[in-house]
Target: Phosphatase PAP2 family protein
Amino acid sequence: MDVQPGIGRRAAIALPVVVIVAVSGFVLKAAGGFEMPLSIALNRHHHGVLGALGDLLYHVVGPVGAIIGTAVITAVLLLVTRRWTTAATFAVTIAGSWLSVAVVKLLVHRPRPDAAQLPLPYHPVQVDASYPSGHMAFVTAVVMTTLLMMPPGAWRRLVAVLGAILVGAVALLLTVDAVHYPTDVIASIVWVVAVAPLVHAIWVRAVLPRVGARRDRAEAHAIGRRFGTQEH
Model:
């Protein structure tokens, strides 16, 4: 029996998606560069404002930039809300849904689009695995985590619309840069949309109550000793 309401339901959605995305990666790798013509066509637009935005995105939202950005937002949440649980929930949900993509990436190890065939390739040429896209996963994780932590209402609907536009824009820029095949980007979006709610539910409904309870008891004990009100 699922003693943590919501976890089982979200796992029932996430786990099949995880399997499908992982298996699809091996299938796509075995199929070779069948998407190369589409990547070439998209890469022809890798110039001007679109090209500059794509290059900036890929440079800034790398692993280091993503970690720093997450740390900064987490610190701001802590300062504004004065609640470590809120800040920790934000950081953990992003980390779990974003970094889990790296496991699939290492296992599948799909080659990047061949830069030698691209009319306007991104520099420096990327040589690590391509599927799924870590950049796309991070941006989608930020949007999903924000939505998961917002109460239902008009503001949440607005953020959902703006988030969808942001995810779509990032997907376009990454495929125009041709640092990823379109399916690399799609796989990341599907993965995070399915996995983020599960990570959030496990943390909030299973882990946090235990961690929070222990911390609350420790803080109460410390305050009691400080003011001489601790019961014996």
Summary: The helical segments are 7-30, 36-43, 48-60, 63-81, 84-108, 134-148, 154-177, 182-227.
